[in-house]
Amino acid sequence: DDLCPNDPLKIAAGACGCGVADTDTDLDGTPDCNDLCPNDPLKIAAGACGCGVADTDTDLDGTPDCDDDCPNDPLKIAAGLCGCGVVDTDTDLDGTPDCDDLCPNDPLKIAAGLCGCGVVDTDTDLDGTPDCNDLCPNDPLKIAAGLCGCGTVDTDTDLDGTPDCEDLCPNDPLKIAAGACGCGVADTDTDLDGTPDCNDLCPNDPLKIAAGACGCGVADTDTDLDGTPDCNDLCPNDPLKIAAGACGCGVADTDTDLDGTPDCNDLCPNDPLKIAAGSCGCSVADTDTDLDGTPDCNDLCPSDPLKVDPAVCGCGIADSDLDFDGIIDCIDNCALIANPNQDDCNLNLIGDACELNAGTAFDCNSNGVPDSCDIASSYSIDVDSDGIPDECRSDCNDNNMPDAYEIAEGLALDCNFNNIIDSCELAAGRADINLNGIPDVCELARGDFDLDGFVQASDLTLFLNSWGLAEPAYIDLNHDGIVGAEDLTILLNNWGSTP
Predict the structure, then answer these.
(1) Within 10 A of 380 (CB to CB), how many other CB atoms are there?
(2) Could you tell me which of 137, 124, 97, 129 has the C-alpha nearest to residue 113?
(3) Which long-range contacts (C-beta less than 8 Å, at least 24 apart) are formed by 491-494?
(4) Taking the CB of residue 5, how many other CB atoms lie within 10 A of it?
């Protein structure tokens, strides 16, 4: 079965035969045994360019690129003088190809020069400017005609910008013609009146060329036709005056009231005593009787220097507010004490504030209202009608009745007449040894010295033991400093009674 029994690597001849490997080094599909370019996958024969180089002919001129120095130029295989892509043509046959000849159609020039291709750079007058650029080719001093033309110098002696060939005043830099004033004198017309200054006696006055009556700059006008030109007439529009006088032009200096002031300056032309209306007007004197600076005609209080209007209080009475409560003093029911509300609860025309301040009314509860008004309005109760609100009186038992009222009405006891209810004295710690509800001091005062509730013999004994003495003080019933007959009388008058 081995068609290559002597070839250990093959069992069949293959493309290369027994003994030769079918290797394809460049993997181009042709085994090396049949491939003359075994390492070039694009060629199996060397061709014109050899293995490893393609036989490409980019410009299709029949010469492969490997032998063509101009591979993209089908007309050339070498660069020549002009290089690939440019033909080595010499149009004007001057020996310089067109690619290097800036004048390819001029066999005499290969560059334009000053005159350009096709024109010779001749300089006839040898002034350095070729004839092609020289408008005066035969004048070595000029290359253009200028203002004077070729062959004539454009000299400007007076440097006025106009050459002498055209300047009729070649030495006058301000003129090129003599004009009205001649060379050397400007034809200036300062006032633009059409007459040059050299012939104008008023060169700055466009309306005059001679001074006339008024001089240059002033017209000889006589506006009011009074025969005096305006320049000498102080009233040029008044044919009756040439000076203003007191009243000015156009107004007569009449003095109707003969007061020495012409009517034009007299605001009261018919009043010989006034030349201005003043405050009161013409024909009314500006008298100020009270010297307050306001004339009587405008002063509603002409005799009161402090007022010009009666206002609230009338003339002669100042509208002052001494207590600064906003109420004028003349209508303030309490002018010296601030009371903006003007309270007068009793309608006596005296403010409550003043009555309280003067002590003619009292305010025991400090509510700003007189006690009498508190009682009258039932704001406060006064059960005993003493004019003092009950809340301001002592009420030791807090029953809303003054203690004095209870005592006076017999509603409470005051055995020692000290205006303190006995029960309140006891509650405050007053002694009541026998607990009978009567302060001991009251019982002692009646002669019940042993506090047994009766004035009797035992009390008399104690009394007599102190006869003529000052001690103990409670036995001195009349408090005259000694126990004596008057004390005995008091004791006997209370005999057997209980307080």
Answers:
(1) 20
(2) 129
(3) 491/447, 491/455, 491/459, 491/460, 491/463, 494/446, 494/447, 494/448, 494/455
(4) 10
Q: What's at 316, amino acid-wise?
A: G
Copy the structure tokens of residue 50: 């050899």
Q: Distance between CA atoms of 36 and 316, rounded to whole angstroms?
A: 153
CA distance 275 to 263: 9
> What is the C-alpha to C-alpha distance for residues 130 and 125, in angstroms, rounded to an integer?
9
| pLDDT tens digits, 311-370 | 999 999 998 989 999 999 899 999 999 999 888 888 889 888 898 888 888 888 888 888
Mean predicted confidence (pLDDT) in 40-46: 93
What is the rounded distance in angstroms from the CA atom of residue 431 to the CA atom of residue 474?
Answer: 14
pLDDT interval class at 299 (50, 70, 90):
very high
Distance, CA of 202 to CA of 215 (rounded, Å): 8
The total of other beta-carbon atoms located within 10 Å of residue 271's CB is: 19
Q: For residue 163, is the peptide bond before it cis, meaning its omega torsion is within 30 degrees of 0?
A: no
Q: Around 307, how many Cα atoms within 13 Å sit in the side-chain half-sphere?
A: 16
Determine the 3-state secondary structure of 112 from DSSP. coil
Q: Give burial (CB, 10 Å; 0-12/13-18/19+) of 377.
A: exposed
What separation in angstroms does the CA of 365 have from each of 246, 380, 381, 391? Answer: 84, 9, 12, 8
Q: How far is CA 476 from the centre of its chain?
A: 96
Smallest Cα–Cα separation from 206: which of 192, 196, 219? 192
Output DSSP code: residue 126. -
For residues 141 and 147, give the distance between their C-alpha atoms in angstroms, rounded to a whole number.
14
Q: Span 192-199, mean pLDDT?
A: 94
Question: Within 13 A of 119's CA, how many CA atoms are on the CB side?
Answer: 11
Distance CA 424, CA 412 (A): 10
**Residues 346, 370 contacting (CB under 8 angstroms):** yes
Q: Mean pLDDT, to the nearest integer, of 419-426? A: 74
Contact 114, 123 (CB under 8 A): no
* Nearest-angstrom CA–CA distance, 259 and 283: 14
Contact criterion met (CB below 8 Å) for 127 and 141? yes
> pTM of the predicted model, to two decimals?
0.30
Tokens of 19: 């003994």
Structure tokens at 462: 């104690």
What is the distance, to the nearest Å, from the Cα of residue 493 to the centroid of all Cα atoms in its chain? Answer: 102
